[in-house]
Structure formats: C-alpha cells, structure tokens
Write a sequence for this structure.
C-alpha cells in the first residue's frame, strides 16, 4: 500500500476524501477507475452499496483525513438498542424457501413490452373498478384479481424488464390501485429471481394487489404526507380492515391471507401487527414486504418526496440486518438491479439516458437509451448504448452510469418516450435486435 494511502470503512468516509482504490473491481461499480474526490452525500451512499471499505489517498484528499477520523464520533449500531433475544433472532441467517425453478428470459423486450402494455392497462383498469366496488358495495371480485396476477406472472416469466419498464413510466400515479399493481409487479419479479414456484408467484401477486383494500376504508387524511405517531397507529389499522375483507373470500389459513397477515412485519420487530422478528415472519410475507416497502419509497403517499430507484436501493441496503435480513436485501438488489429498468440516469460523459434492459450477468452495465447528449441537447434520434460492451467516450474513458436522476429531470413525457421507443415503428426498429 502506498504511504499516503489509508484503508477506511465506508461508514467513516467523508466529503472531501479522495478514493484511490476499492475493495471490489472498479468495473463492477459506476465510479471512475482513475479515482475521485467524494463531493456529495449521494456518492457516500453509492459507495456503501458497493463496498465495505475503500482506500483513501491522504495527500490528494481535500481534508485532513487523520484529524477528521479522530474527531468523528463512532455511531452506535442500531442493533445495540435491542435486547439479547431480539439481537439473536435478528442475526439469524435468513431462511429461504427452496428454489424450484430456474426461469429463463424467453421473450425479447420490444415484443414483451407490446404485450405487457395492454396487460398493464387492463390490470390497472380492473383494479380501479374493483377498488370502487369495494368502497361502494363492499364487494371484491377475487377471480378478477387472481386472473390479473396470473397474467402478470406469465409476462414476468417471459421477460421481467417489460413490466418493470411500465412500472417506471406509470410511476406518477399515486392512486391506491396503481400502487398495488406496481407492488405486485416488484413482488413477482423478486419471487421469480428466487426461483419460487409459479403458484407462489401468483399468490404473492394476488396478496399485493389486495394489500391496499383496507386503505380504502381509512380517512383520507391518513393517506397524505407525514403522519404523527397517533395517526400512524390509525393507519396501521388498514391491515386488519384488509384481512376482514379477504377472510370472507379465503380461509384464514390460505397462503394469500398468510402473506397479507405478515407482510408489514419487519426483521427487528418494529413492524405490525404482531411485531414478529427475523425468520418468525413467513418467508413469502418477507418477500412481499420488501417489494411493498420498495414501492412506497419510490412512490410514497401524496405529500411525501419520492426517492430515485438508486436512493431506494441505498435505503434498503442501509436497513439490511435491521428492517430486513441481510441475505434477503442482497437478493432483492440482484433481482431489481441498482438501476431498475425505466430509471433515468446520467452517464459519465454528461449525457442523459433511460435504462432499457439489465443483462442477467451484467446488472451494473445495462442497456441505456441516450435521449440527451453531453450538452443537454435532446437527440432527434435517441441512441442505444450497451454498457456491457464497455464503450468509451470521446476522450477514450470508460462510459459508465454516474448517477440516477429523478424523472422530472427529463423534459419529455414518459408516455411519449414509450411510444417513440416501442410504438412507432419508424423509430427504434433496431431495438428488435
């Protein structure tokens, strides 16, 4: 190790330090391989996603590394706040349901998106009607919901990127039924990655489609903005209201109700209604719970600021071992990707693009459609770049994703972009390749 280089855990990094080396290969990360100064909190969060420790060059750093580290108080770990029994249960290795399938992508993205677009609109329409019936007549057409879940499972099995793309272009709709549809899609994608049976995928999808039923009965003020402790307790009552309805349809021991009864539980016992800990939470409920949590981060209640997908993944990563088990968080990140399909990203050459596809063996280097060049000029004909091919910019430097952007950063309607990419045949016919 060079004399001016110091190994530092990622949780001790500070803005102004110069990162000269990582504990993982540079090519597996979005960081410039020549090293870089940490200039903002987002970079600290991203480093925590990829690394356990990094190597700081004290000479190139803009702050006094030694003094900064000595003055930084050590933060107590959240786990130190729990009693011995809770710690033991939280620290248990996550028990996974055995994988029974090895699903292979069998449909090209363009073809599947065209099928999935009709399906997404159809499911969203069905759910809108079902939720209205629930509010007006107290009636749930469960056969419609199970059918919707089955069709989404079939699409995700063929190509998970298609419905993931549609989730992202429809993420500005905060209606309860839309959030339920998106949660179900994330849950099915996660379950597919875990190799669970088609029956389990369908039940996870069905449970998440039903998960918002009880919220229809809540006062509207509980579905907006940040809640007080008292309001949050009232909000949690949605789960009992949901189960009150679903137990009219399924037996209390049915797997869908089993998932619904526990998907709001958390690894550290802070969830509800029973404050279950670790592996005492049913496995499929843990899968559904993480998908639902992720959707709430990127599409929260009205009045609450949404996170970008990267920020949401960073949040999940920081909660590993606390709200969610380590192994489950890692599997979820592998399933959804650091840059989920449909994410708006800035590349290292300052161009702006949208993530189109994530190769299974190269999740950090997805296929990106460049819609603005490095001068922030909208391209007449957007350009597809496969980062897995290790392209370089005009200066000969590796072209990589620099950061995720909020969807409002792109001055183009997401539906308009979807039509240009997938509907108008005179555009992007080469995407079929």
């Amino acid at each position: 190790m060079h004399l001016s280089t110091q190994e530092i855990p990622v949780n001790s990094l500070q803005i102004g330090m110069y990162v000269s080396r990582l504990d993982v290969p540079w090519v597996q990360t979005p960081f410039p391989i020549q090293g870089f100064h940490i200039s903002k909190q987002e970079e600290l969060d991203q480093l925590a996603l990829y690394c356990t420790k990094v190597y700081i060059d004290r000479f190139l750093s803009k702050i006094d590394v030694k003094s900064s580290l000595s003055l930084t108080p050590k933060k107590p770990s959240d786990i130190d706040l729990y009693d011995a029994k809770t710690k033991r249960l939280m620290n248990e290795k996550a028990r996974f349901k055995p994988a029974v399938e090895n699903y292979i992508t069998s449909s090209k993205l363009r073809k599947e998106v065209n099928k999935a677009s009709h399906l997404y609109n159809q499911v969203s329409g069905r759910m809108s009607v079902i939720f209205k019936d629930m509010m007006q007549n107290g009636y749930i057409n469960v056969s419609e919901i199970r059918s919707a879940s089955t069709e989404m499972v079939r699409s995700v099995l063929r190509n998970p990127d298609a419905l993931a793309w549609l989730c992202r272009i429809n993420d500005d709709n905060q209606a309860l039924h839309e959030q339920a549809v998106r949660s179900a899609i994330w849950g099915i994608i996660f379950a597919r990655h875990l190799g669970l049976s088609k029956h389990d995928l369908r039940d996870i999808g069905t449970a998440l489609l039903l998960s918002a039923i009880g919220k229809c009965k809540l006062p509207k003020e509980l579905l907006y903005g940040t809640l007080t402790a008292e309001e949050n307790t009232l909000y949690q009552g949605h789960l009992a209201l949901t189960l009150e309805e679903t137990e009219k349809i399924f037996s209390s021991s049915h797997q869908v109700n089993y998932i619904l009864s526990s998907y709001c539980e958390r690894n550290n016992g802070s969830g509800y209604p029973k404050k279950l800990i670790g592996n005492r939470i049913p496995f499929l409920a843990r899968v559904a719970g993480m998908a639902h949590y992720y959707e709430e981060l990127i599409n929260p209640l009205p009045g609450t600021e949404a996170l970008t997908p990267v920020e949401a993944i960073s949040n999940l990563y920081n909660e590993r071992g606390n709200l969610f088990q380590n192994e489950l968080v890692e599997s979820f990140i592998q399933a959804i990707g650091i840059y989920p399909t449909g994410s708006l990203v800035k590349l290292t050459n300052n161009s702006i693009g949208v993530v189109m596809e994530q190769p299974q063996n190269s999740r950090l280097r997805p296929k990106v459609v460049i819609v603005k060049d490095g001068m922030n000029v909208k391209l007449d004909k957007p350009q597809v770049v496969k980062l897995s091919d290790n392209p370089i910019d005009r200066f000969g430097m590796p072209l990589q994703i620099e950061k995720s952007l909020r969807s409002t950063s792109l001055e183009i309607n997401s539906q308009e972009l979807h039509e240009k990419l997938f509907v108008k045949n005179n555009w992007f016919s080469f995407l079929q390749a």
Summary: The CA atoms of residues 216 and 334 lie 33 Å apart. The two ends are 46 Å apart (CA to CA). The chain has three domains: 5-71, 109-336, 344-432. Residues 344-432 form one domain.
